[in-house]
């Protein structure tokens, strides 16, 4: 499960890099591929809601029972996540 999350986060970093490059194109006064940008954003949002976020919740629930000493850190991470949304 952790390997899947690592892979997911690496793939997400690649997607964000694509968006960063397209933003740079726009900032340089050129026209980026807006369709590609939309598809990347749609993919990120649907994938995160449909797969990655539930998998992360499962990991957190396991951590709560197996490593309760880290509960304050898990709560801070959950708060950070809510602020990002």
Largest sheet: none
Number of alpha- plus pi-helical segments: 3
Helix content: over 70%
Give me the secondary-structure category. Answer: mainly alpha
Distance between the termini: 24 Å
Number of strands: 0
Overall shape: it is elongated
* Total domain modules: 1
Mean pLDDT rating: 87
Alpha carbon gyration radius: 16 Å
Topology, element by element:
Layout: H1 2-27, H2 34-66, H3 71-84
Helix pairs in contact: 1-2
Word description of this protein:
This protein is mostly helical and 85 residues long. The protein has helices at 2-27, 34-66, 71-84. It has one domain (2-84). The protein is built from three helices and no strands. Helix 1 (2-27) packs antiparallel against helix 2. The relative contact order is 0.10.
Features:
single chain, 85 residues, mainly alpha, 3 helices
Short description:
The protein has 85 residues and is an all-alpha fold. The chain has helices at 2-27, 34-66, 71-84.
């Amino acid at each position: 499960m952790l390997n899947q999350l690592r892979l997911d986060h690496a793939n997400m970093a690649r997607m964000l890099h694509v968006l960063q490059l397209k933003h740079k194109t726009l900032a340089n006064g050129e026209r980026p591929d807006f369709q590609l940008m939309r598809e990347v954003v749609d993919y990120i949002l649907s994938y995160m809601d449909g797969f990655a976020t539930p998998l992360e919740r499962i990991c957190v629930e396991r951590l709560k029972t197996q490593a309760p000493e880290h509960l304050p850190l898990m709560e801070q991470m959950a708060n950070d996540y809510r602020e990002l949304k």
